[in-house]
Design goal:
By secondary structure, this protein is α/β, with parallel strands linked by helices. The chain contains 10 helices and 12 strands. Helix 7 crosses helix 8.
Length: 289
């Protein structure tokens, strides 16, 4: 079977060096064995995705001389597939409506004496809405209160205890998807969550090897459970090291990481930058974690 890998950026800003690092590894993993490399635009967040950033992604990847083998896939065109998957999860009886706001969740965690959450991930969900009485839920629905759909991880995971996946760097893994609490499946402000959409897309596109940063390692525990619940195939994973700046923080749009467009003055030919990254020759001020 031919290897199929993918690069799946969100068009919420220009690509930066960390994106290039990840895209090159996903591209080269497939090309090393004559496989397919796919581009998926994760534009499901309609409030932040911009058409100009889609074009920027295409331009940056072309500048790096990274080619993809099929027309880019857009998540915004695939919402019916995510809705179908959500219905299958509803049928298990392990989903529930969550009316909590981010502020309410953080307040509950603080009141419980939990340590402040670090990094970019949301705090663990305290599962308050899992235990709401039906009459309370009906009252909130009657008031048109917005809600997200969450997965009751404790009960959903019980039949699948012991499932795992193979990671090309970390080795054999056993899933334990509880780090973030009951994850969101369907958001209040947008369609399917990252967890649901990426799981459905990887299976539908025949992705055999998911190559992505190790900041997403914990998410893979959740994705493995969703694959089991939905009867989907499990790819091989490769969670690669991240690029970090001089302060040790990973490169991210929200932290003002230099864009690939910014680097064109230093590297007029994107292939030169791509080859330098392949060789581990990183620009001054950057390192692999």
């Amino acid at each position: 079977m031919l290897i199929t890998s993918r690069f799946a950026p969100s068009p919420t800003g220009r690509l930066h060096l960390g994106h290039a690092w990840s895209a090159i590894q996903a591209h080269d993993r497939a090309r090393a064995e004559g496989g397919r490399f796919l581009l998926r635009i994760e534009d499901i967040d309609g409030t932040r995705s911009r058409p100009e950033h889609v074009q920027g992604i295409l331009d940056d990847l072309a500048w790096l001389r990274l080619g993809w083998d099929e027309p880019p896939t857009f998540q915004s065109a695939r919402v019916p597939l995510y809705a179908e998957a959500l219905e299958k999860l509803h049928a298990t009886g392990h989903t529930y409506r969550c009316f909590c706001t981010r502020a309410e969740i953080e307040a509950d965690i603080a009141a419980a004496g939990s340590a402040p959450h670090a990094g970019d991930r949301p705090p663990p969900h305290p599962v308050k809405c899992r235990h709401r009485k039906p009459q309370d839920v009906m009252k909130r629905l009657a008031r048109d209160e917005p809600f997200a759909w969450r997965l009751d991880l404790e009960n959903a995971f019980a039949p699948y205890f012991g499932i795992g996946w193979q990671d090309e760097i970390a080795g054999e893994q056993t899933a334990w998807p509880f780090a973030a609490g009951d994850v969101v499946l369907w958001r209040k402000d947008a369609p399917a969550s990252y967890h649901l959409a990426v799981t459905v897309d990887d299976a539908a596109q025949g992705v055999s090897h998911v190559v992505r940063g190790r900041d997403l390692f914990e998410a893979t525990h959740v994705h493995r459970l969703l694959q089991a619940m939905l009867g989907l195939s499990t790819p091989t994973y490769r969670h690669h090291p991240l690029l970090v700046g001089t302060d040790g923080a990973r490169l991210a749009k929200r932290h003002g990481a230099p864009t690939l467009a910014d680097l064109r003055a230093t590297y007029p030919d994107g292939r030169e930058l791509a080859d330098a990254l392949r060789a581990g020759d990183l620009p001054n001020g950057y390192a692999s974690d």
